[in-house]
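Students often ask why inverse folding is considered easier than folding. One informal answer: many sequences map to the same fold, so there is more than one right answer. In these notes we will look at a single instance of the problem. The structure comes first.
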């Protein structure tokens, strides 16, 4: 996983803008009580945004305490996101626009699927005040969003990697092994200790929640086919060690773009290190 770029916005300005653009009257011509409620909450929310920013900057987000609102306030705050106003659309667009090209559409929780929506890192059920706060929104795929739900920590420890905060791109914690049986490479992914207990615990929970080891294995066949198609242009012209060099070169380029423990990088590394796999390629391509 690679750290993604942090949204930079006037956060409370976003809040104020969504409220200002709400209708003053409801469809029955009565005062819009939700707008009145949200206007009254703006100073309180501004303080909570400052708290979020301070714990976010110190990477101490696990200490976040939210809520304390009655049901009406909670629903009103959550409706700001659900209402999906033009300003919320701008926030969502900004979150993707600031990402590197490779990560604009890719889910940072799994690195497998394209994004299809936004996850509230601190769930909007427990933290309705952060429902439209840009730094609390992660563009992610529907599979991860469905698996994460309201989960983000166990007791005092976080259970989900925060792609804005956790820089793990140079850490090799995802390993892949390959066995070639009857001409078919079969892979297994596993987690390796990072040497840091906090990260190890976080990664184990993150991988379990999103079922990542199994999902990577499921996706490996199509990725191996892609790698094979790429290598086909060298058909019959390279020996085993030259093929290894080509694959290793591709791997290193992918590492720069996606990070050392991106699942496709772990897979590529396993393949170029496997003599059985390379022998199989040389034999097939000859
Ligand atoms: Zn995902």
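Output (designed amino acids):
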């Amino acid at each position: 996983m690679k750290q993604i770029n942090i949204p930079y916005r006037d956060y409370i300005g976003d809040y104020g803008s969504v409220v200002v653009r709400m209708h003053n009257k409801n469809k029955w011509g009565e005062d819009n009580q939700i707008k009145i409620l949200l206007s009254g909450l703006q100073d309180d929310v501004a303080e909570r945004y400052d708290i979020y920013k301070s714990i976010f900057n110190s990477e101490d987000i696990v200490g976040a305490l939210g809520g304390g609102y009655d049901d009406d306030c909670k629903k009103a705050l959550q409706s700001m996101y659900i209402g999906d106003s033009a300003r919320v659309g701008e926030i969502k667009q900004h979150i993707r626009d600031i990402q590197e090209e490779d990560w604009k559409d890719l889910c940072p929780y799994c690195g497998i699927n394209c994004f299809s929506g936004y996850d509230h890192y601190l769930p909007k059920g427990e933290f309705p005040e952060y429902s439209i706060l840009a730094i609390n929104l992660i563009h992610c795929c529907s599979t991860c969003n469905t698996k994460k739900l309201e989960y983000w920590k166990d007791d005092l420890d976080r259970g989900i990697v925060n792609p804005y905060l956790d820089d793990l791109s140079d850490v090799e914690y995802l390993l892949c092994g390959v066995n070639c049986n009857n001409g078919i490479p079969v892979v297994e992914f596993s987690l390796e200790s990072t040497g840091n207990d906090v990260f190890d615990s976080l990664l184990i929970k993150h991988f379990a929640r999103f079922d990542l080891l199994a999902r990577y294995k499921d996706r490996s066949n199509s990725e191996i086919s892609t790698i094979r198609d790429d290598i086909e242009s060298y058909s019959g012209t390279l020996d085993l060690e030259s093929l290894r060099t080509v694959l290793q070169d591709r791997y290193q380029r992918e590492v720069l773009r996606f990070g050392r423990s991106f699942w496709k990088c772990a897979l590529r590394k396993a393949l170029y290190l496997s003599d059985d796999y390379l022998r199989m390629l040389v034999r097939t391509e000859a």
